[in-house]
């Protein structure tokens, strides 16, 4: 799940929370979550790495968005599969 505000009044500090429902066992866990902001000058925003010992795959931070755009989170699992979530954020004042 990708949690972002629908409208960001300030694109310089947009709160972001990502949670991936995974048992986080040695055989089945999240390896990495990539965050991409399609409309930013540098679309690759962040990558968060996990192991089975992480306990849960959850992260909260703030990101910069230059304009109204889609933000994507791609979770790569230990078995090689990928999960994807997308949210549009309307930005009133750009942050890039």
Describe this structure in words.
The protein has a 5-stranded mixed beta sheet, with no helix packed on it. The protein has a 3-stranded antiparallel beta sheet with strand order 1-3-6, with no helix packed on it. The protein is 0% helix and 53% strand. The mean pLDDT is 95. The chain has 96 residues and is mostly beta strands. Strand 4 and strand 5 form a beta hairpin. It has no helices and 8 strands.
Give me a quick take on this structure.
By secondary structure, the chain is mostly beta strands. It has strands at 2-3, 7-8, 14-20, 30-37, 44-49, 57-63, 69-77, 82-91.
Percent of residues in beta strands?
over 45%
Structural class: mainly beta
- The residue ranges in which pLDDT falls below 50 over 5 or more consecutive positions are none
Query: What is the helix tally?
Result: 0
Task: Write down how many β-strands occur, each being a DSSP E stretch of 2 or more residues.
Answer: 8
Strand order of the largest sheet: 2-8-7-4-5
Portion in helices: under 10%
Radius of gyration: 14 Å
Instruction: Report the major sheet.
Output: 5 strands, mixed
Secondary-structure element string: EEEEEEEE
Q: Whole-number average pLDDT? A: 95
Distance between the termini: 25 Å
Entry keywords:
96 residues, mainly beta, 5-stranded mixed β-sheet, 3-stranded antiparallel β-sheet, 0% helix, elongated
Topology:
Elements: E1 2-3, E2 7-8, E3 14-20, E4 30-37, E5 44-49, E6 57-63, E7 69-77, E8 82-91
Parallel strand pairs: 2-8
Antiparallel strand pairs: 1-3, 3-6, 4-5, 4-7, 7-8
